[in-house]
Amino acid sequence: MMNKVQMRHYVKEAQRGDRETLACLIQQFEPSIRNCLRQTPPGERDDLRQELMLKLIEITLHYDTEKAPTFTEFQLSLHEKKP
């Protein structure tokens, strides 16, 4: 798995139009996606996988690497949203 610095670099390259880098990013998430899909009925897995891939691409291409929160900031934001 990529570290944070590598991931940020790959995201920036993908945003610049490097399709090979975008494909590498997608491959990094493929095992996690497959694991999640095991919870889905077999007849729905292909459609859901495609939707997840599209969402992953969309998020990657629009992700602001300069304004990304630290893990602590992210964690705090989760606690703030709880009722």
Polypeptide structure, described:
There is one protein chain. The longest helix has 19 residues, at 19-37. Helix 1 (4-15) packs across helix 2 (19-37) and helix 2 (19-37) crosses helix 3. Helix content is 72%, strand content 0%. The chain is mostly helical. The chain is built from four helices and no strands. The protein has helices spanning 4-15, 19-37, 45-62, 71-81. The chain is globular, with a radius of gyration of 15 Å.
Low-confidence stretches: none
Structural class: mainly alpha
List the total number of helices: 4
SSE arrangement, N to C: HHHH
- Fraction in helix: over 70%
What would the principal axes of the Cα set say about the shape? globular
Provide mean pLDDT, rounded: 87
Main sheet: strands, sense, barrel: none
In what range is the share of β-strand residues? Answer: under 5%
Give the oligomer, counting copies of the same chain as homo and different chains as hetero.
single chain
The value of Rg in angstroms is 15 Å
Distance between the termini: 34 Å
Number of strands: 0
Structure at a glance:
The chain has 83 residues and is mainly alpha-helical.
How does the SSE layout of this entry go?
Blueprint: H1 4-15, H2 19-37, H3 45-62, H4 71-81
